[in-house]
Amino acid sequence: MPQTDTYTDFENPSVFDSSLCLSGSPPMSSLKNILNNPDPDRKRSVKLLVLPPDQASSTWQPPAAHTSPGSSSEADPADYNPLIHIPHPDCPDSLACLPDTDGRPQHTLPVILRCAILGSTRKRLTIREIYAAMEEKYAYYRTAGQTWKQSVRHHLSLNRLFERQPRPATDPGFGSYWTVNLLAPPGTKRPRKRGRPNKDSRAKKDEPPPQEAPPAASTKARRDSMMADEDELVDELESESEPEDECESEEKILHPFERRHSLSGGGLTPYDSSAGFHFPAHQTSPDFSSQQNPPQSTTSPPQHVVPPQIQSPPLMPSPHHSEDIVERLQMEMANLRRQSADAISMSMQLSDQLTQAEANLSEARSAIQLVESKLREEVNKRMQAERTAEDAVRLRRAAEEALKSMRFKNARAIAPLYTSGPVAATHDGSKIITCVEETAILTDVASGSEICRFAGDTESISSMCISPSAKHLLVFTASLALRIFEVPTAETSITKPIQPIRVVARAHDAPVHVCKVDPTSTYLASGSADGIVKVWDIARGYITHVLKGHGGVVSALAFDYHLDPSAVKQQRKMQLITGSLDTRIRIFELTDTTSSGSGTQKPVAVLEGHVSVPRGLDVSQDGKWLISGGRDSVVLVWDLSPLQQSATKGTKGKGKALAPTLAKTVPILERVEAVGLLRPDEDLTGSTSSSDKLRFYTGGENGVVKIWDAREGNVLFTLGNEQNKISDEQEEQRQIVDVIYLPSTSTIVSVHADQNIMFHSLSTHALTRQLIGFNNEIVDAKFLSTATQRDTHLALATNSSLIRVYSVSEFDARLLEGHTEIVLCVDTGANGLILASGSKDRSARVWAPLKSDSPDASWGYGCVAICEGHAESVGAIALSRQSGTPENTTSHPGFMFTGSQDRTIKMWDLSDVLLTCTDGAEPVKCKSLSTLKAHEKDINALDVAPNDRLLVSGSQDRTANVYEIDYVATPGGRTARGSLRLAGTCKGHKRGVWTVKFGRAERVLATGSGDKTVKLWNLDDFTCVKTFEGHTNSVLRVDFLNAGMQLVSSGSDGLVKLWNVRDEECAATMDNHTDKVWALTVSHDERTVVSAAADSVVTFWQDCTEEQEEEKETKRADLVLKEQDFLNYLELNDYRKAIQLAISMGQPGRLLNLFRDIRAAAAESSTPSTSITGNSSVDEVIRTLGGSDLAKLLRYVRDWNTVAKTSVVAQGVLFAIMKLRSAEDVMQAFGDEVNETALAEGAVGAKGAGGTALKEMVDALVPYTERHLGRMERLVQESYVVDYLLAEMDDGMFDGEYDDGAMDIE
Question: Rounded to two decimals, what is the model's pTM?
Fold first, then answer.
């Protein structure tokens, strides 16, 4: 009965011969672990041999095994297991376990390669790593040349045990990996070429192999140790073993498939009962006694015990040995029973293991499902992120496309308000009139905006005043002319200059320095440099009085208009008081009987008391007191009561009238330029008001307005801040040249020599408003903010030691005094609360808002810190950017940088600087943290990055240096530490760098240079990525807009340009300056750009893109409605409205189609029409068309007449106009059009206007009409020729028939 082979296959069917593993290494994930120490969870292939009872053997021979030194040579066959790992020093799973040799290794290359790969960490090696491992293990390969490397490549390429694994794309390096495939079938990758075996080869195969020392792990040696006889089984086993290849040795490692083949093909030979055993004479029967007690194994058996294969030699039956055979078969059956019991127990263990494996498999599947779900979530998140990124890219591209159409408009401007000359204000103080060169400007005080300009005569204004009723403005110019204007009452701005209603070409023979209007707004008094005073009737424009006798220039005028106590009825008496260069004050009586005859009126009184020129005169409301002040630093109070009493009593003779007396002399201790009396009921804080109070104000060289008590002679209070430590030049600039008293608002207006106009409140003693007349050359500008609102103020650095701070909403301004030289630069922090400035006085100052407890208190800024240490002027300054931002909630700046002409940069500690300024507090002296020599030439600009990590400096040496900021703020009042370290240099400009700016959204840097270009730099490698060219002169300032997608720059060419960063194109050019634009700043919301230039103009550019789009959409909607109405009118045959609508829409094409259709309809009609145009309704429309509409229609006719295709319609309409309208109507139409245009522009139309336009129209119509006439005549002549040719072609066949219709050709 043949033997039965049973297999149980698991995950890994590879089972190697246990005799190949000769080491006791610990378990590891390698071939050794799979063979010697199988994991309980790892499935393996087990072969169970079940022999029939008749072939069972009572004894069996275990395979011979090498024993370690010191172990027993005898082994117990019950404890033997061929898969048990027997420790020995040569383990074939890693190169470390192979023996070291000085010469050539005793193992073959496949063994060494397999051990090198399996012994690596990742179980894979490149070819170079295999070379290195072999050279490191064996010194032989280090000097053996290159031949062994070819053998290595040969075995790796041909042996199926080795597989090539491509290197992943994310793994750097060269070469693929080589791994060991334990499941690969035996043999080579290419079939070996072999011929048919011959007899000699078969005979050679049947011969026993040469006697050599069998290695411990050879399959043949194992079989030789089990078989002692050379029988058929041995021959069969020997025939299965092929001779070793030339590249292999006796230590051939069987592949798992070869192992399975050896187990399945090496079974016992079927037992034949009829055959007998024939033992040779020299050989006895096999001795099985020695095999019944195999040596005990030194190692514990593994968890899974595989029953050994029992191979008994074939029995040779003989009559003499029948009892021995029975006994032996019984022993074999007992052994088989034991084996079956072991197999049953092992199958139960395997079943348990299978159940555990299935449980593990289900857990693994659930884990895989969980991982897959998470992976799907990650994939969804990634896809969502990709879609979001794509949407962001689309939005950015859309934004970039929208930015190409972005436009800015000139919303408003701070222009020069007052340069020099006189100043006038309305009685309510709402409007003020100032002089800018030879032009008078009317300005709204509340908003600071310009209302209108009064046309000048190209000469400077010497004197000016406004009537108390605010109806007329009277101006005297250096040309000696008097110009009278009507003051507009509209609050809106008027673009056209206001023309005078009356001009007196030569009002005086000398320049007029003072003029005054009486309280009734009827008379005007003017005093000239020749000592003559003239009184004018404003409404009628003639002279009422000529007052002579003054000894020099008339310096002051005042009207006295009070009740006359001598009159029977209550009537007022008017007097004129004058002051002149001869220091005398004269009082003239102005009566109704006085005329401007040749005679000269004499003064009723002459007052002497001043020793210098009197500059101010004023009379009380009751006419009892006269006050005069002059440059002799005194104010004289005169009592006019005696003069009134003498007028009441009457006197006989001349010279006996009582003269006014000097009541009091008040020393002012300064030159007085303006003086005036306050109303008795004026409410002054700190003093009582009553009718007997006599209080006056003075203004002079100290630049302050003082309120005096005339009776006591003391100062009640002072309006303004008096400067004690100022230079002579500053003192001259800040002195008061005029003071205006506004009783209706209890306000004193002081006009200073430095073109500043201040409004002081008499009730609160505070500065309520300040107008800066002229800013001179503006060199820098920055936005300031309050604690509750952004960009509320604008700070300007001008060609002055004073810093101008404007209120953006009202244009109210303040002057910051502190520097002694010209301020060159200003800067603000991220929150905009504090202001820093640098000056030519080699110092930098920090300014903070004034601290006030009262909401009605005046706003302003005060100096809180001073930074001194530079050897030259400070031309660049930059504050910390992180304070007050979401990243840094504290609003206190940490540090500040200053750049100077001494070519150094200083870092200042601002940790002790206060954020508010209190009155009387001394500024803090800041400490310098570090000083760095940055450039070889002057430093022009500094800027700090938004994260306070970088600083950039631009210099005249054509470079921009970027520094890393190292700042450490130490708590506890200790000194902070700070330093700078050069990070890189941006080189590429051909001229000096004037401006530098960090990007607020990206790590980029923008620079502007004198080479007319703007460059954009990458902060990672400091290379230029973009260059913007378009300015025609030096680029002075640059800044970022719209998240870094746009740049705005200003230059010396007076232009402000807007750039698109992506395509390096100029998106818009803004022009409102006539000089270099030194200052440029952007608001926090990036919707407002402020530019300031050397022409003293500050322009606010606002984004008007949305407004323009809305306006276009509105126009489009209106046009659609009008087109629909036009079509409706055509359907209703309402030609009048259709023609008027087409003219109003400005669509000559629709009008042309209308006239063309009317002509075509008239031609197709069978009824003859008496209408000129073909339709009587159209004729009526042309007959009654309005003036301006008729002019537009004639212009359309002119355009149609230039084209031969449309000339027929044009001639028809022109013929209808000439027939239906008179020549006067046509002339009047063009005049109406000109007048309507002038009225829309704010000008006054002239009578008879439009003649020029009519002449141009006729000149354009005549030549084209003549050309069309000539063309028609030629066509008529050619038609005659055609008729003649047709008549001649019939060869006289129809002469008699057509004699009557023959044409005579001349």
Answer: 0.63
